[in-house]
Amino acid sequence: MEEHGGDGLERKAGPTAASGGVSSCYRGVRKRKWGRWVSEIREPGKKNRIWLGSFETPEMAAAAYDAAAFHFRGHEARLNFPELAHGLPRPVSSETDDVRTAAQEASLRFRPGARPVAEAAAAEGGGAAPSSSSSAGGPMTVRISPSQITQDSHVR
What we know:
Low-confidence stretches: 1-19, 126-137
Shape: globular
C-alpha cells in the first residue's frame, strides 16, 4: 500500500497490489506496470492530487515533481534534486494546467539526449524563468496555456 505524507507522495516499499507499480528512489515518482514513469503531487491543504505526467525516465518524473513541489512549498520543499532548485521553471499560477506545464518543462531537462543539466543551467544563466529554447536535440511538444501566450508575446 502507498504511504502519503502531507507534502506529496512518499517512497513506497515495493510494488503495489492495486496498480502493479514499482517503487522509485525519487519522491513523487512511481513506475507503471507497462514501464512508464509517472509523477503526481498533492495540493497543499487538499486531498486531491495534480497529475504531472507520464515520462520516459524516473529522473524526468522526479524533475517534474520538483518543479511542482518548489512552487507549492518554496524552500521548505523536499526535492529530488535540491541543487537545481534555483533553475526550476516556475508556473505562472497555481492552476493545475500551469503547474503541469512547468513540470513538463522541468522534465525535458532530463530527457535522454538532452544537454547535461548543469551545462543547460549554465547556458540559461541559471535563471528561474522558463526558456523558449530547447535543450533537447530534436522536436518536442510544449504545452502552454492561453494566459502564457498573452503574457510572453511581448517579451521576445
